[in-house]
Amino acid sequence: MESAGYVTLSRQSGLARELRAIANNIANADTTGFRREGVLFAEHVRRLPDESSLSIAHASARWVDLAQGGMTMTGGTLDLAIQGEGFFLIQTPDGERLTRAGAFTSSADGILTTHDGFAVLDAGSAPIQLPAGTRDIVVAQDGTISVDGQPVAALGLWLPTDPLDLRHQSGTLFSTGEREAMDAVGIKQGFLESSNVSPIQEIARMVEVQRAYEAGQRFLESEDERQRNTIQALGR
Prior knowledge:
This protein is α+β, with helices and mostly antiparallel strands. The protein has helices spanning 3-27, 199-234; strands spanning 37-46, 54-64, 71-73, 80-82, 87-92, 95-99, 104-106, 112-114, 119-120, 137-139, 144-147, 150-154, 157-160, 167-170, 173-175, 179-182, 187-189, 191-193. It has two domains: 3-66 and 204-234, no CATH class; 71-193, no CATH class. Strand 10 (137-139) and strand 11 form a beta hairpin. Helix 1 runs antiparallel to helix 2 (199-234). The radius of gyration is 24 Å and the shape is elongated.
């Protein structure tokens, strides 16, 4: 295969990854706390001896859009939304994970958990225990949890040291490298944060990427036909 074919194949591979990311965004447009993802394209240029330089596209890295999603009032006592920066910290069987999805509940033994049963962690990375017989739960904007007028715990909010370290694991959970605690100032009780995906923008982008992919495919097919014709002509 000639250089033009390798260049086009590298571009096609990146466009295919972007199509998968866009499809996932659209599928999660109504998922609470979901964060839109995109694909990072990079150009790698190699200078060849006695030839022009060769440029190859590389698009294996993903980035996470941290833009604020809309707020939906639910009135749920343990429905919590973050206004501004930060993530809740969750303990899963695979380790600690970050999330913006704040639809929480209380387990049979009083541990604050997600609906998947993962413990929600406080500012010290410990599970939050709600007293037995809890009646009146109030969560302040700074994350302080009070039960029947008495403070019992403080929700922790966390930020990745490098936003590019965020890695989507499953659903609305993210892993990260280094992270740091931050002051909770925008927690809203009785609200949930919507996905920050705009379906119209994602569909428009999907059409654009599909057209680019189809153009690359047509080029590869024409190059294949040209090479076959050249081989046949030389073989006569």
